[in-house]
Specification:
mainly alpha; 4 helices; elongated
C-alpha cells in the first residue's frame, strides 16, 4: 500500500536524525526544573516523538515543533 511513515522511517534523512538528536538532547534540560512522575515523563516523551514525526513529514518546522512541545511540557508539569 504505498510508503507510509513506518516504511519511510527506516530511511530517515541525516537532517531528520540531527533534529531528533537535538530535540532529545533538549528535553532532559527542560524536565530538570521539577521532579516528574513516570506518567508525566511518558506524556512529554510522546509529545516530543509526535513532533519529531511532524517535522519529518514536513507538517511543521523544527522551531514550531520545539515551541509547541515546550508549551505542552509546561502544561503537563503544572498538572493540566
Amino acid at each position: 500500500m504505498g510508503s507510509g511513515p513506518a516504511a519511510a522511517a527506516k530511511t530517515a534523512s541525516p537532517v531528520f536524525q540531527q533534529d531528533i538528536v537535538r530535540t532529545v538532547a533538549v528535553a532532559p534540560l527542560l524536565t530538570q526544573r521539577k521532579e516528574l512522575t513516570p506518567e508525566q515523563e511518558e506524556r512529554i516523551s510522546g509529545v516530543r516523538q509526535d513532533m519529531d514525526v511532524a517535522v519529518w513529514l514536513g507538517q511543521v518546522t523544527c522551531e514550531q515543533a520545539d515551541r509547541f512541545a515546550t508549551q505542552l511540557e509546561d502544561r503537563i508539569m503544572r498538572g493540566l
